[in-house]
Specification:
Elements (H helix, E strand, L loop, with lengths): L4 E2 L8 H14 L7 H14 L3 E5 L2 H11 L5 E4 L6 H7 L4 E4 L22 E7 L8 H11 L2 E5 L7 E2 L2 E2 L6 E5 L12 E5 L2 H10 L4 E3 L2 E2 L10 H11 L2 H19 L5 E2 L7 E2 L5 E5 L1 H4 L3 H10 L2 E2 L12 H4 L8 H9 E4 L7 H13 L1
Parallel strand pairs: 1-16, 3-4, 3-5, 5-6, 6-9
Antiparallel strand pairs: 2-10, 7-8, 7-14, 9-10, 11-12, 13-15, 15-17
The structure holds pyridoxal-5'-phosphate.
């Protein structure tokens, strides 16, 4: 049996590089609570992402939950169903109601032309997702939010290091969240960050990630615990040195996939924009059954038989799960429903052999 090929594989940096940081930790005897490596990583991320301020958290999901809490939202939050469950879970876990907006067929991000009809007097924010690293219509969303006085938060879990018209993608909206989970383009094993623009929100988040402690003898809010440890920060410092090379390698694989797959009738790939620097985080394809002759599950099973394991990201949609049906009124999201039933995320990581990319394309082409 050959080694199975999974949808992704975490990047493992050279061990000597990690051990150098571990030696530093042994010398400093600081393991957590905003230590030296933590602060170094926050600084380097701010530089790399070209943003005003980056704050680290234990993981992307707690970062998202806490930034929603820090913004003091109430009532309804307009979001997308076409995402990882974390996005809308963070809304519901803050006692807020998600209102699901449909997505665009061309790149699977929130359709900004459908937002306004969902706004009610209870709406306080828009939480959109740069899904697979395809940037949202940030300008359209900014205008709607300004007109209706709404906060904008981006789940940028997939969008590390991207730029839109030369601007670091973390700069849009009131705040953005990046996930540094092991399977993401840049990782700290588990981890995440929030990008903020003003220190008022920064100060709140600083309390929320550390039990609301503001001094040796003062606790001023009911905070959580979401601090990143020195061992995780060390992994981030190692990986950040390799990130440009990793993205470049992903790009070669994605361009090859796209070149070959775009020639197959019934196989659709997202539209790319000329004004975006992508990070090539995922390789989703949509199988249009009528044109292709077979459905998504057929393609998935066919690849599985050859030891190749793509994933049906994002299926099922959160707004079709029982745990949501009892929480909110369901909006119709026909495009998201269709994409969810037709999408397949193909294997993609920096050192995925090019022969495997070709083999996957061959299998999809042959049907
Ligand atoms: C991975 C992911 C998250 C959650 O991040 P964690 O770091 O795993 O907690 C949130 N939203 C999206 C879209 C993600 O892909």
């Amino acid at each position: 049996m050959k080694k199975p090929i999974y949808v992704t594989k975490p990047y493992i940096p050279p061990m000597e590089e990690y051990l150098k940081y571990i030696e530093e930790i042994w010398k400093s005897e600081v393991l957590t609570n905003m230590g030296g490596l933590h602060n170094q990583l926050e600084y380097q991320l701010k530089q790399y992402l070209e943003v005003p301020y980056a704050m680290l958290f234990t993981n992307g999901h707690s970062a998202l939950e806490l930034v929603l809490e820090g913004l003091n939202l109430s009532g309804e939050v307009i979001t997308t169903p076409y995402t990882f469950a974390s996005t809308s879970h963070a809304i519901v876990r803050n006692g807020l109601t998600p209102v699901f907006c449909d997505i665009k067929d061309s790149d699977f991000t929130m359709d900004s032309s459908k937002i306004e009809s969902l706004i009610t007097e209870k709406t306080t924010a828009i939480l959109a997702v740069h899904v697979y690293g395809y940037p949202c219509d940030v300008e359209g969303i900014r205008k709607i939010a300004k007109k209706h006085n709404l906060k904008v938060i981006y789940d940028a879990a997939h969008a590390f290091g991207e730029k839109v018209e030369g601007i670091g993608i973390g700069n849009f909206g009131d705040a953005s969240m990046f996930s540094f989970h092991a399977t993401k383009v840049f990782h700290t094993v588990e981890g995440g960050a929030v990008i903020i623009k003003n220190m008022e929100l920064g100060y709140k988040l600083h309390q929320l990630r550390n039990f609301g402690i503001t001094g040796e003898e003062s606790i001023t809010s009911i905070g959580s615990n979401a601090k990143m440890s020195e061992l995780h920060a060390a992994m981030g410092l190692c990986n950040l040195k390799h990130i440009d090379e990793l993205i470049a390698k992903r790009r070669v694989r994605v361009e090859h996939y796209e070149k070959r797959l775009s020639k197959i009738p019934g196989v659709r790939i997202a539209q790319r924009r000329d004004d975006v620097e992508y990070n090539y985080a995922y390789m989703p394809i949509v199988i249009e059954e009528k044109e292709y002759g077979e459905d998504r599950d057929y393609v998935c099973t066919r690849l599985n038989r050859e030891g190749i394991f793509p994933r049906k990201y994002f299926y099922p949609l959160v707004n079709t799960c029982d745990c949501y049906l009892e929480k909110c009124d369901m909006q119709e999201t026909p495009i998201a429903n269709h994409i969810s039933k037709s999408v397949l995320s193909l294997p993609l990581y920096a050192d995925l052999p090019m022969e495997i990319v070709d083999k996957i394309c061959d299998l999809i082409e042959e049907r």
